[in-house]
Amino acid sequence: MANTAIAHHSKKTFALNEVDFPFEVKVEKKPLEFDIKSVGYDDFGKQLKHNVSAHPKVDKRSGHFC
After folding, report:
1. pLDDT tens-digit series, residues 20-32
2. Contact call for residues 6 and 16 (beta carbons, < 8 A)
């Protein structure tokens, strides 16, 4: 699983590294604890054709990753 950075995009949370697609995780929050569940790699409906950066930049005006 990816472990370099965490990014939130399109109402999903992703763990990132340089060698694969974004890895989706779900964070389940409870009053005094939380749990992180693995969902799996996401290629955004086969739109993503290559690895992603583990150090994403966000456009401050649009909020989009670049």
Report:
1. 899 999 999 989 9
2. yes
Residue 61 lies in a domain: no
Total domains in the fold of the chain: 1
Distance CA 64, CA 60 (A): 8
What range does the domain containing 13 cover? 5-41
On the question of pLDDT at 60 being above 80, the answer is yes
| Cα–Cα distance for residue pair 13/26, rounded to 1 Å | 7
Cα 64 from Cα 66, distance rounded (Å): 6
Which one, of 31, 45, 38, 47, lies nearest residue 15 by Cα?
38
Is residue 16 assigned to a domain?
yes
